[in-house]
Amino acid sequence: MGGVFGHPFMEHLNRTRAGIYARVSTHDQQTLPLQLKAMREYSRKRNLKLVIEYKEVGSGAKQRPMREQLLREARRRAIDVIIVWKLDRWGRSLADLVFTLNELRDLGIGFVSLTEALDFSTPSGRALAGMLSVFAEFERDIIRERVKAGIAQARDKGTRHGRPKSASLQAAEVKRLYKKGKGMTKAAIARKLNIGRASVDRALAS
Q: pLDDT of 109-120, one tens digit each?
């Protein structure tokens, strides 16, 4: 069960120093003991030397300080292999998963997932790594296209994109729009320039 990213799955890994990383959401904490038990049992059966255990509890994907600490341990070569319960417990996104696994591979650090039987040292593992990279780039492209589409849509609707200019710098524009009359009220000017009604009043009074 399980595979090793970055290392062939061979007997020479015996007594390799292992680090465990377990993560659960705040609503799924009851699975934490199961994860830890399975990873400890894996280490014992493979004769790995378990030297570090990190546990993380929390919803959301942005902040994972324990994972970052484990990565620091890997970078200073305090461990030889990282063991996780499942890939989605490790990666914050597909792109993040690919980036961190590639970094570990470059460091010569093994990566074991107890749920997905994958090994970057095999032809099939290298093919999977390539596919993950392609999917990660696809994910980034989708995000970029969505951002571009959102900007274009906002422009079509006359909505300003990005940070609003300082209201003081827009005073001339406020006065120009207000002088037009023709239904351009102070409230309409405030909406168009994305500033407060009070800022419009101040600009007109200046």
A: 888 888 876 655
Flag whether 103 is in a domain. yes
Q: Is 187 domain-assigned?
A: yes
* Same structural domain, 115 and 24: yes
**Separation between Cα atoms, residue 18 and residue 28, nearest integer Å:** 25
C-alpha closest to that of 73 among 104, 47, 101:
104
Token pair 């989708």 is at which residue? 142
The pTM of the whole model exceeds 0.70: no
CA 188 – CA 177 distance, rounded (Å): 10
Per residue in 47-105, pLDDT tens? 999 999 999 887 665 678 899 999 999 999 999 989 998 888 888 777 788 788 888 88
Q: In the annotation, is 25 catalytic?
A: yes
